[in-house]
Structures are given as structure tokens and as C-alpha cells.
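ugh ok so i messed up the first submission bc i forgot one of the chains. this is the corrected input, ALL of the components this time, i swear. 654 residues overall. if the numbers dont match what u have on ur side tell me asap before i send this to the collaborators (the ones from the other lab, u know who)
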Amino acid sequence: MNVIEASGLGKRYGSTWALRECTLAIPAGHVAALVGPNGAGKTTLLNLAVGLAAPTAGSVTVLGGRPAGSPAALDGIAFVAQDAPLYKNLSAADMLHLTRNLNRRFDQRYAQARLGELGVPLKQKAGQLSGGQQAQLALTLALARRPRLLVLDEPMAMLDPLARHDFMATVMAAVAGDGVSVVLSSHVLAELERVADYLILLSRGSVQVAGEVDDLLACHRVLTGPAAEAARCAERLCVVHARRGGAQAHLLVRTNGTTDPVPSRWEAHPVSLEELTLAYLREPGAAALPGPARAGDAKPAEVN
Amino acid sequence: MTTLTVPAQPGQDEGLRPVPWRAMAWVTWRQHRLALFGVAALFGVAAVYLLIAGLQMRHAYAAVAACRPAGSAICRQVAGNFLGTYAPGVGYALGLLQVIPALIGAFAGAPVLARELETGTFRYAWTQGFGRARWTVAKLAPLAVAVAVTAGAFSVLVSWYINPIFGAGDNNGPLYPTIFDLRGVALAAWTLAAFAIGALAGILIRRVIPAMFATFAVWAGLAFATGWFLRRHYEAPLITTSPNVPHPAWMISQSWTRGGQPASLSMINQTLRPVDVQAVTPGLFQPGPATPANLGDPVQYLIQHGYTLLTTYQPDSRFWPFQWIEGSWLLALSLLLIAATVWLVRRRAA
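and heres the new structure output, hopefully the right one now
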């Protein structure tokens, strides 16, 4: 099952395309990170997936073919929007009551226990909670709905490092606990490395990279060698990004999973997720869809 | 593909029952009880004033009602004194009450959607399992009914309050613009319409304060156009050439003719010059210093000189038909505006 599946998806605001020709399939059971520079269309893609926005072109379905925004889709998705919007004048307890009344399922016991552990006072008005507590409250409300897909839009943007850590710990506990799939957008790359096992890189409104993190890391590596040989070396390889430091050149290359022989006088290093992401972000023109070519086949065989 | 086990949630997809409507009742109450208290307070304050002023007025009116023989010159004098004392105050009170629907539209109607959009909480509300179109209906419908019913109850009190003024033979009658829309079904209908205007302004403008002002402006335009232009055409007005217009009635216009031709004010003034009277309007005359004391009514003078007074009016017997006409179209308009609001919520992109 794919938790989000988009085909030729496009969204135009006025004369600007916020997202165009976006075709991707995010399989279930992952913590998928949606990364990209500001204005790449991350929020737009998530809004389309949760049904807050309607596509200008193409289509998007969730949870194995449910139209985005349909009652069946809303039932299985919990969304925490950017800056965790809450009713500022309602207490945390009221927010629980509200969310319980607005959904078919709501795990009141989980929500209360979770907020208790986090030390979020139930009687306090949401507007008077700290930024971290507000984010935790919004996340707890979402998880207590027992969703099959949790969608988080820039959940860490407003949080300090400690609150970020706590926030992601709550997410990861839910992933471990009941196998919820997660799609989160972020530009905090360092945080993603620890949690994400699926990466979608959006650039200028379209998908540049999509695939499982392990696969992506396995088929990329950094070659370091004399700068003078870089051009000759690059001819035979698929170079994503080249960087020169003095006499040394660093080439981030994509392999086909097979271990090509390393040219003599060159050294190969494995690549980190952050390096890989940065390389692609720096080379929006080097657009390629490496790794398992999920994107492109609108109906993967695994759809159940 | 590697799939982590998603815990089985039996029966989740089969016959997906929507979240019941009654679950929203608490939500609507919790989030809008302050607005509802505000509506109640507004009507409460106005009701207390009407009750106190109405009781005082009734006390004074007892003398008018007890006057015998009814219709005699002395009784007309008593009634005239009563009106002279109380009618101006009643006029101001009715003028102030006019804005009640607008206040409700602006303070209770406009924020329902505008606040969600302004603060971003619509991203929370519209992604819950309840569904955003149903959420909108479940908020707007009970609030609309609540404000309309409260306004309807209040208009009964207005009728009680105004009765002595009618009893004493007030000139304006129940069709007069500033009293017509506070009685019968009209106040409830106007309040409902103002609320619906507010809701629609909220989704269109997406900011609370501008939406409130827009609500006020649209309501004012609609109320003004209805009171001064539209309402008089609900039924063709009656025209009489008798100078004794049925009383009280809603006078729409008066004009003079002579020999079948319309007579201008300057023509009338020409005729009235020998007795030194100025016609300010076709029905209002200003005597000068040289006016003979025994002239009597200038209207009679003009009729004797070959003029005919044409009076266009709506008789008071049309009060209820007019109430139903106005109530019906305002109800239809309100339903249309609320339907448009729900439709916009459904399709509006974030």
C-alpha cells in the first residue's frame, strides 16, 4: 500500500506553479522525509495530500487509493500543520475533548497519559503553553486519533533542539508502537538522518529524488582524488555534484548498486544522508530519480 | 516491498460510519458560547430597557385609554399630549434597535469562519474526521437558528412596547420603515440574514475585523434599499385623491395635479401667494406673517382653487402580508448565503 500516491500532480496559485508534474508513491511503513529548499512545494504537496487544497492538475490519493480529503481519507490521516495551530483560548483538556468529538476514534487514555508524561498541564489554555508544549499537544491530538498515516508539516521549525528531540521521540515511539506511517517535511537535515528511512527531495515544484534511504546511500558514494583528473574521471561516471578543495576533488557519484572499480589514485567513501541531500539541493539541474524507481509507475505492483 | 505491520483495525473501512452530528453540538457550543452569551446580553439589555420604558409608557397611556367619550376633542388632546411626550423617545429607541441584526451578523456571524482562517486553525478543524463541509453546517445551522429564535422572541417584546403608541393614534403606523423591521417575523429574518452575510463575508475575506465591517456595510445597504425602495413595491400602493388619507397608513408620496397635469411646487406657491403661505413639500405648508387667521387648511384652499391632492400609500392592513413577503425572501436569501458559504468551504483551497 502507498500512503501517498500522486500522479501528474500540480497546484497553481495565481500564475505561479507551487507544484507541478509531481508523480510519486510513498510506500507504507516508513518515516518519509520530504525535503527541499523554501518554496519547493513541500507544504503545497502536504496540503494536497490531506485535502486542504485541491489540485490544479493531476490527482493524489492516500492510504491505498482513497481520494485526498474524502471522509475515508480524513479518517485515517492525522495532520499537524506548520506552527501546530490550536485554539489558543481552549485548554489542553478542551482540545482533547474537541478532537475526540470530531473523530471516530480517539484514544483518550493515551492522550492523557502522554501529556502527563510530558508535563503539559491539562487545565492550561493552549495559547499559554510553551512552543514545545504546543507542538507536543498538537502531535498528541494527532496520534490519539490512531491514524494510519501521520503527516507533519515543518514540525520542528519553531522548536529548540531539546524540544525537537522530545517531539521526534514521541513520533518514533508511535512508529514503534503501532506502526503508523509518517510523512514529514523539514529542512532540519541533521534531525532527519536519525529518523527518516525514506527520502523525497522536492526542488522547484517537482520531485528530484525519491527512495529508501538505505538504497539511496548504497548507490551513492564520494570519490576523492586529484583535481586535475576530475574531468576525465567524471566522463565515465554519473556525477551528481563536484566539489574542489585545493588539489583534491570530491565527486558525489551515483552508481547502479554495482561496485564499480575505483580509479587508481582515487578513494571512495560512503555518503551520509545530509551530504547526499545537500549535493542534490545544490544541483537542482542534476535531476535524476535514483534508487528504486518508484516515481513514474503510477500503479506499483505492490498496491493492495 | 518491505511493509511494517500496521496493526489490524478490523472493520475500519467497511461501512465507514461518519462521526455523528451530535458530536459537533458540544464543539459548536464550546467554541461559540461566548458569542451566544454576547447575543443574549445584547438582547437582554435591550429587553430590560424596553420593559422599563414600556411599563412607564403604559402607566401614562392608561389615561389615554380611559378617556371617554373616545374620539372627542378632549380625548384627541390627551392622546396628542401622550404622543408628544413619548413618541420622540420611542423613535430614538427604535432607531437604536435597528442595528441589532448588524451587530449579531458582525460579532456572531463573521468570526465563525474568518477566525479559523485568520489564525490558521482551519488546518486543524478541516482535517479532522468529521469533514469540513459537515463541520461548517454543524456550526452555522445551530447558531443561525439560535440568533433567529432569540430575535423572534425579542420582537414580541417590541410589539408590546410599541402598542400604546399605535393605540394613541400615531401617524406612522406599523408599516413605517423603522418599526416594520422590528416586529412580526421581520426582526428574526433580518437577524438571520445578517448572520448569513457575516458567515459568507468570513470565508470570502478571511480576516475577522474586515469581515465584520463588510457585514455591517452589506447589511446597511440591504436594509436601506429594502426600507426605502423595495418594500413599498411588495404590493401596488393605493392612490387616493381624498385629502383625508386613511389613518394611520404608510404614506409613500403626495403630489398635486391641476386639470389632469402634475402641478409643481412653484405653481402651488403661485396660487398660495395671495394668502402668504409657502409649500415646503406637497403636504407641508409654512404660513407667513400676512396669512389670514381664518385661512384654515391650505390643502382645502388649494382644492377650492382646482387642485387635486394625490396620495400614494400602503394601508396598515397589509402589515402581515408584507411581513410574510419580507420574511420569505430574507429566509431564502439566508439559506442561499449559508449554502454558498458551505460550498466555498468545500472547494476553497488552503
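quick check: The radius of gyration of chain A is 21 Å. that seems consistent at least. Residues 218-286 of chain A form one domain.
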